[in-house]
Amino acid sequence: MKGKTHVGIGTVTFMSIYDKIPGGFSYIGLIVVIIGSLLPDIDHPKSIINRYILPFKNKFAKVAVYICIAVVVLYFDYFYTNEPALKALGLCLICIAISSHRNGLTHSLAGLGLFTLVCGYLDKKYNIPGIEYYFMIGYGTHLLCDMITRRGVPLFYPLINKKYRLPWTYNANSKWGSAFEDLLIILGIIYIIYRFPGIF
Ligand SMILES: [Zn+2]
């Protein structure tokens, strides 16, 4: 599934339930939803987030960059903070470095849990209320949406290495799959325009 489709579905979900989550609507919340909806595909060197992080969009650059960031985070944590969330972040970064697309941690519930732990730390440290909920909306809808594509996701990685998908799936790389995603985005934009006046 394309990055923009994940952003669209994450945003639509947020606009439908923001009044039911702690923190309600906020622009920071919307940005966190968007980041959460793009984050699982950080395991792909050509994904939207990696376009801004990696100097070269290939596997080697992905391994080198994420191992370096993990070393910096773990070094900082070891000498200065001793904070479980930063250890979790270091572990996530190592997993991002070594896993190939849709085969590892970022497309699993374990990845959702570890990154949510990091969000909880940011909430406490920088006082951003509700950041965990915003993040879970974006990240959770990404995993759910990848489950309606034929490739499925390793939901219970690293315990079970099987890929899970819903009973109805489509081929995201086909012409019809692409048209289906474009239709979802158009419907999503219409819904967001309809819901937007309600937040003021
Ligand atoms: Zn994905």
From TrEMBL:
The lineage of its organism: Bacteria, Bacillati, Bacillota, Clostridia, Eubacteriales. This is Inner membrane protein. PANTHER family: INNER MEMBRANE PROTEIN YBCI-RELATED. Signal peptide: none annotated. It comes from the Bacteria. It comes from Clostridium homopropionicum DSM 5847. InterPro entries: YdjM (IPR016956), YdjM-like (IPR007404). The chain crosses the membrane at residues 24-42, 63-81, 176-194. Pfam families: YdjM. Keywords: Membrane, Transmembrane, Transmembrane helix.
